[in-house]
Amino acid sequence: MSDSLMLGYDYALYSIQGIKIPLYAPLDSHFIVIGGSGSGKSTSVLYWLYKMKQYNCYIYIVDFKASHELMGITEHFAEFEDSYAMIKQYYEDFLSTPEGGNDSIKILLIDEIAGLLTYYSMTKEGKIKADEIRNMMSSILMLGRSRRCFLWLSMQRYSASIFPASSGSADNFHVCVGLGTLSVDGRKGLFAGEHFAEEEELQFGQGKGIVFIDGQPLKGIIIPKVSKKKLLKLLQK
């Protein structure tokens, strides 16, 4: 399917009927994905980035927790204390990108955004940076689609503190994915308490979860089994 990103397969059809039906999302999408340790979140994000690299795509990565595993995928990469500067660089590139006249896609992936904001909020000077990051993300979410600039957030737990409730920023994500066993609060925050028909029959775990794609009903998703090491090698080329 042209101009679409294959996220995975419809979990209910695959699990209950053994049918592999791909689930597609528009390339031009803001993403948010949550999942605890062992949920397959990192592998899923790498799989989607690999798919995106087949297009005219520029990737910026902020790995706040400094795991080092995302290093080498792009020259636009920062960890820990350098996170703010990379987000600011992406934001400046976003502002300089004309509306409606951009053929390339620019993605800013921030891993563990909640931890990043908490860290910066520990000092008075850092709190100013945290609020600035929130404002920059809100602008990208509101205006990014017309410039083909997109925000991807990846985290272990969903936190409503990332954006002020009154801003409405969280409503601008086009793709929301929750992998593994989700907490009640995390699930409610991400999917507004909605359920889908086959949900009770499915067992969620590694590489399995729930997806909301803008304009489509809530569905179960299963990510293709791919080697994380292989994906990293392919991306680091």
Provide structural commentary:
The protein is an alpha/beta fold and 237 residues long. The protein is 34% helix and 24% strand. It has a ten-stranded mixed beta sheet. Strand 9 and strand 10 form a beta hairpin. Helix 2 packs parallel to helix 7 (228-236) and helix 4 (113-120) packs antiparallel against helix 5 (124-147). It is globular and about 55 Å long.
Summarize the structure.
With 237 residues, this protein is an alpha/beta fold.
Structural topology:
Elements: E1 4-10, H1 11-17, E2 22-26, E3 31-35, H2 41-52, E4 57-63, E5 77-79, H3 83-95, E6 105-111, H4 113-120, H5 124-147, E7 149-155, E8 175-179, H6 184-191, E9 208-213, E10 219-222, H7 228-236
Parallel strand pairs: 3-7, 3-8, 4-5, 4-6, 6-7
Antiparallel strand pairs: 1-2, 1-10, 8-9, 9-10
Key attributes of the depicted protein:
24% strand, 237 residues, alpha/beta, globular
Q: Total number of β-strand segments?
A: 10
Question: Which percent range fits the helix content?
Answer: 25-40%
- Element order: H for helix, E for strand: EHEEHEEHEHHEEHEEH
Q: What's the pLDDT, averaged over the residues?
A: 91
Describe the largest sheet.
10 strands, mixed
β-sheet strand percentage: 15-25%
Rg result: 17 Å
> How far apart, in Å, are the first and last alpha carbons?
25 Å
